[in-house]
Amino acid sequence: MADEALFLLLHNEMVAGLYRAAEQGEGENGRCTTKLESMGFRVGQGLIERFTKDTARFKDELDIMKFVCKDFWTTVFKKQIDNLRTNHQGIYVLQDNKFRLLTQISAGKQYLEHAPKYLAFTCGLIRGGLSNLGIKSIVTAEVSSMPACK
Length: 150
Prior knowledge:
mainly alpha; Muramoyl-pentapeptide Carboxypeptidase, domain 2; TRAPP_component
């Protein structure tokens, strides 16, 4: 439980620190999102490498996505993805109805415009993990109501 609190505090401070530096003229907001996504990418690569060292090879993309939704997501965020949808043509939609990194902000629409900066690291995390498993991907996040995200 303590490691979860540390992760949440570290994540919040990474986001706040990068955006505070941008406000002081040391960068742009777009660069902050890119930097957070890049950090997440590297962490995702390392975590997937560590989690899959003792597992058998995956048969296809769907098996990889199931692994990400169940095992990877559970290890990082202490719960499984609530919903996984696919069109069987390479598009996957992962939905988390109570995303931990957003529950700390608000459950209302008050901070909806700030949600993307808190999701950039996670998008990189998923993209880095998928990259290490041999899947080139584009990962985007969408928030229509807090704390749920797709």
